[in-house]
Write a structure and sequence with these properties.
The chain is an alpha/beta fold. It is built from 10 helices and 19 strands. Helices cover about 30% and strands about 25% of the residues.
């Protein structure tokens, strides 16, 4: 796009949802500009672990499950396509996952979770301690002495967030998307029932259509046009160990916490859930809690160095549904945000249904439950 041309579509927010939408729009021939308040792809999208829980599209009935299922299918397809277009391996691996319980309460929750997945015809199997030890020798001692229930989900997958974001950005740029970092949206110019411009720190930007994909910052922006979403930042702290070789191969899940093994030996451990405003600091308590969890479940990590720790701000919503759709009262403006812990997982499906809506097509998923500004 030339410096003086007006894009058909302006995307405000360069996380995984914004980049995925830009890519989807560019694939379908749109002239797109994307801006970000800071560095593109360096907020919650970068900070996460990239877990992709299995979904059965054939049995997904409600819109949220259908969005997850569409996205899960697209991740497999996009991983191949992005690698072909950019040469970047985004780390997509169908590695499987283990779900663990060490207390009576966790066992009850895990049994209920397993029954729900069976009802959806998603493959899940309960394992004995010896079967756990055979699959993951690093868990042998814990399986024999602490674990009260373990289930295997062979269909669980993962990808590496930084590599996925790198691949998306390269693919967008090669398809002509104009990506501008360090340009913060500060307000909007309305004309009748249309958005005429986005005001930024370096002047106004114009387009035919606009989409706000600013993650935890989306609420601040939409309030300026009188739309309340309830999106709020939820801090999640992470820890990364560095091992010579991966000590285990499957993702380990215990309640809301997880350990994710990478091919190069790194192990990601997450994540806390904290209301801390827009503070992305790590804390000794949060990091210590995650380190203790990792070393309890995988004793081999007691001798592994901690390479790094960080925090990201997930965009939470009051009802756990993202906000996807047209802005109420504004014909040419849309939003896609509030995915909480599932932004990366649901990003390709979100991009597809938003693109369909922006093109005047009937989205393949009912977006009513995701209405922007719902109370």
């Amino acid at each position: 796009m030339s410096a003086n041309s007006t894009p058909e579509i302006l995307i405000v927010g360069g996380g995984v949802v914004g980049l995925s939408l830009a890519y989807e729009l560019a694939v379908h021939g749109s002239n797109v500009q994307l801006i970000d308040r800071a560095s593109v792809g360096r907020e919650a999208s970068w900070a996460g672990a990239g877990i992709l829980p299995p979904v059965n599209r054939a049995t997904a009935i409600d819109p949220l499950d259908r969005l997850r299922a569409l996205s899960h299918q697209l991740h497999r397809e996009w991983a191949v396509r992005l690698r072909e277009e950019t040469g970047v391996d985004n780390g997509y691996r169908e590695c499987g996952g283990l779900y663990l319980a060490r207390s009576a309460g966790e066992v009850a929750s895990l049994h209920a979770f397993a029954e729900m997945l069976r009802d959806l015809e998603i493959e899940i199997e309960r394992l004995t301690p010896s079967e756990v030890a055979e699959l993951e020798p690093a868990l042998s001692d814990v399986a024999a002495s602490q674990l009260k229930a373990v289930y295997s989900l062979p269909g669980e997958a993962q990808l590496r967030n930084p590599d996925h974001l790198k691949a998306l950005r390269l693919a967008c740029e090669r398809r002509g998307v104009d990506i501008v970092a360090d340009r913060e949206a500060t307000g909007f110019e309305l004309s009748n029932s249309r958005l005429a411009a986005v005001q930024t720190t370096t002047g106004p930007l114009h387009a035919d259509q606009y989409c706000i994909t600013s993650g935890a910052w989306t609420q601040r922006l939409l309030m300026q046009v009188g739309i309340s979403t309830g999106i709020m930042p939820i801090r999640g702290q992470m820890v990364m160990f560095k091992c010579e070789v991966p000590p285990f191969r499957r993702i380990l899940n215990e309640g809301p916490r997880y350990l994710v093994p990478r091919d190069d030996g790194r192990v990601l451990v997450g994540s806390t859930e904290e209301e801390a405003g827009f503070d992305k600091s790590t804390t000794p308590e949060g990091v210590g809690e995650l380190v203790a969890l990792a070393r309890q479940l995988v004793p081999e990590l007691r001798d592994a160095p901690i390479e790094n720790s960080w925090a990201g701000l997930r965009p939470g919503s009051f009802d756990s549904f993202p906000y996807i759709g047209r802005l109420s009262g504004i014909d040419n403006a849309f939003a896609g945000a509030g995915h909480y812990r599932s932004g990366l997982h649901m990003s390709p499906g979100t991009a597809v249904v938003l693109r369909q809506l922006m093109f005047g097509e009937e989205p393949e998923i009912d977006l009513t439950p995701f209405r922007v500004g719902r109370g």
